[in-house]
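Batch manifest, entry 17 of 40.
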Amino acid sequence: MALPRGYDAYQKNKVLTATPAELVLMLYEGAIKFCNIGLVAIENEDYSKANTNIQKAERIVAELRGSLDMKYEVSKDFDQVYEYIGWVLLQANVKKNTDRLEEALKHLRTMRDTWKEVMKIANTQVG
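Output type: structure tokens
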């Protein structure tokens, strides 16, 4: 029993001490994880599990979209991308379509990888 509580405490502490950039990365990682679980669930015809996990990914994308600071021009571009990914996830969930889910995963992975590069550049400029 101590192990799960210790892990939960570690995860909570990780979130509480993360920088805003690290939190965004965690959101991308979470969305990717839930899409992958949804993909396997669809392949196994466990549609309830697929629905639950795709909805989690949808909520993360909505959170990313909602956190945009629209005073920056680039935020408008991100808003459109997040809107599209949300739509693709919805279509994947409604139709239990693995191709759509793979498309959403491709976009999320690209955005995550780009975000990692931005974080690296920012860290080298600060340090």
